[in-house]
Design goal:
The structure is a homodimer of 389-residue chains. Chain A is of the alpha+beta class. Chain A has two domains: 252 residues, 4-Layer Sandwich (L-amino peptidase D-ALA esterase/amidase); 119 residues, Ubiquitin-like (UB roll), CATH 3.10.20. Helix content of chain A is 33%, strand content 28%. Chain A has eleven helices and 14 strands. In chain A, strands 1, 2, 3, 4, 5, 6, 7 and 8 form an eight-stranded mixed β-sheet that branches. The two termini of chain A are 39 Å apart. In chain A, 62% of the residues are buried. The interface between A and B is large, with 68 and 66 residues.
Chain lengths: 389, 389
């Protein structure tokens, strides 16, 4: 895929992680870009989230760079704000831009003091390495328990010109819908105003990151940011831009679910016929977050009783006699009752890497929602029982 | 412990479970007893829940018997209502009481048709076996994935007389706070009116079953019922009765958490200093339901960052700079920041079977709540990946 013009990237190991593996990344736009971001709604907010929000306000929705570290969340520490500010200032100085045009982001363990000097001292080297071709290196540096880097791309055509959109993200625990979940960064060379960027991001997030769940936990550091530098000369219609942004964010969100901690399967949940979209979303989220549904999927067990049960406690009103459920396209429940299906055939289909659950309410309403989650396996426990140590 | 007078119990294998192990139990009061029950708030409700609710209404809060089966939830089936009614009628006939004085309850797999004849044909044998000493046999018959039967007892003294309270319950998956979770049956020979029984049960449930969580899933079949037959001649003050009932239900709820599917540890969460009890409960529930907190406890990892994070997305408002967290009595967080503690000492303490988390807000309010949950281990996955098969 073609990358947007006018952006450069760099990544290196700054000694923040215990293991020697890139843990610091820089994304730079050659010219000040329109910028927008969504942040965690957790009451406990990491220092970089607070500073990024402040900088976006001070710069009136423009930014030149994103500075990201993995290995330490810089959250719930004595020196958090100071560390965030110091590293942002150092990056701004090295890049020759204003500090408010640098957006900081962190991911990693909470409650451990972060050593600003590690980042400050590494920055000159990082800036020297900036290169338009290092997009993938940056995507790798922001990984924590992710098993694969996650990137997605789109194009926006306008006459003979094309603008490009490229995104990177990281998972893979503490993923919960209804938040600007995890870290995600999107760059584009489309020309978009900060106001259009903000509203496009808000809507696109609603149908992507806010519809994905790994474990129902929401991080203190969640952030998705977009930079649009206009280097393509393409000024796309707002709708076309939003569609491209949504497709990139949706792909990234799906990749997060597929790479959920310990996950072996991507589960797509489609809810149809609910009273409205909100009710559909409630039902889908409840199914997506149910450990019993997720363990059944891990075991390729077509246990639709757990699906209807999770819908039942979602808080959305529905008549259980009007529920149809399909798994892998095979009817397992019709009108709230067991449908006839060949258990062995369905079990074999549930062994596939992609599982689909359709939950439809007959003749109720037009509310629909799509959600992504993953199965719940031994490995989730293994990864999380000793994350800190 | 002494059992309440005027009750008899029986249990047997009726062929509902696949494995040969008691799956049908009967609890009978020799005289019509005051009766009260709380039921699941799931939208999808099993047939026995609907019928038990109806019978309690028709009998104006009296009952002679509880008929319970394990192995099939009798939920989301074509013949559910018919099966529930048929078995209740057969029990009533065999006992010589009115059908509305029999409360049915079921637990097991959802969506599989239940064969009423198995129960109807077994009932004469079951009634013939009724015995005041078979309390434990009944408690064993209602188990599903429970590893141990769960019972609790209390006494109410009144002058020289004593009334007894005895309870049994089953877990151990699909346990979620804010519901009359799982199945629980309490019998007492105290003389209590249906109205007093109802209000005492409602309040007692609020501080016991509604404060326990295994996996955040809420069953379609949850029910806790109490029968009070007055056989002791003791008419206790409402407060004394409520205290005894609460102590029994609290003990049962704790036992459910300790025996949560795959659990190796009981986790008690105390929240203090919240704006009000509701806010305290929200925070405690959020911590109790966090898979990240529960896996950290499984790994004896004092990862308090996950605790403050779970509190942060609970929906309760608080200032993170006023948060103190203790684990096993050792301060791990003060004023939202890491406290100094010896990691190895705390890790060793977290290896114990009982874990305690204290989450206190400084100088905020008087709201407090206690919650129980369990750790999240490999075995939860093993048990639930193939429950049906």
């Amino acid at each position: 895929m073609n990358l947007p013009r006018g952006f450069r990237y760099a990544a290196t190991y700054a000694g923040i992680r215990k293991v020697v593996k890139s843990d610091l990344a820089l994304i730079v736009s050659d010219t000040p870009a329109a910028a927008a971001a969504v942040f965690t709604r957790n009451r406990v907010v990491a220092a970089p989230v607070t500073l990024a929000r402040k900088n976006l306000k001070a710069s009136r929705g423009t930014a030149c760079a994103i500075l990201v570290n993995a290995g330490n969340a810089n959250c719930a520490t004595r020196t958090g704000d100071k560390v965030a500010l110091e590293t942002v200032r150092a990056a701004a100085k090295a890049l020759g831009v204003k500090p408010e045009q640098v957006l900081p982001a962190s991911t990693g363990v909470i409650g451990v003091e972060m050593d600003a000097s590690k980042i400050v001292e590494t920055l000159p080297k990082l800036v020297a390495r900036l290169d338009a071709a290092c997009f993938d290196a940056a995507a790798a540096a922001i990984m924590t328990t992710d098993t694969v880097p996650k990137t997605a791309f789109a194009e926006i055509k306008s006459g003979r010109k094309v603008a490009f959109v490229a995104g990177m993200t990281k998972g893979s625990g503490m993923i919960q819908p209804n938040m600007a979940t995890t870290l995600g960064f999107v760059v584009t060379d489309a020309a978009v105003s900060p106001a259009v960027l903000r509203s496009a991001l808000k809507r696109a997030i609603g149908h992507s990151y806010n519809r994905v769940s790994v474990d129902g936990d929401t991080s203190t550091n969640d952030m998705v940011a977009v930079l649009a530098n206009g280097a393509s000369g393409v000024k796309p219609p707002a709708k076309a831009f939003e569609a491209a942004l949504t497709s990139v964010l949706e792909s990234l969100a799906r990749q997060i679910a597929r790479d959920g901690e310990g996950a072996s399967k991507l589960v797509t949940i489609d809810v149809e016929g609910a009273a409205n979209e909100r009710a559909a979303e409630k039902i889908a989220r409840s199914i997506a977050n149910s450990p019993l549904v997720k363990t059944a999927i891990a075991g390729s067990d077509p246990n639709w009783g757990r699906i209807i049960c999770a819908a039942g406690y979602s808080g959305a009103a529905f008549d259980s006699r009007k529920v149809d459920i399909d798994m892998q396209g095979i009817p397992v429940c019709r009108g709230g009752l067991a449908a006839d299906f060949f258990e062995d055939v369905l079990k074999a289909k549930l062994d596939e890497k992609d599982c689909h659950i359709r939950f439809a309410l007959r003749g109720s309403g037009r509310g629909r929602a799509r959600f992504w989650t993953c199965d719940f396996t031994y490995d989730y426990i293994r990864i999380n029982a000793s994350y800190r140590t």
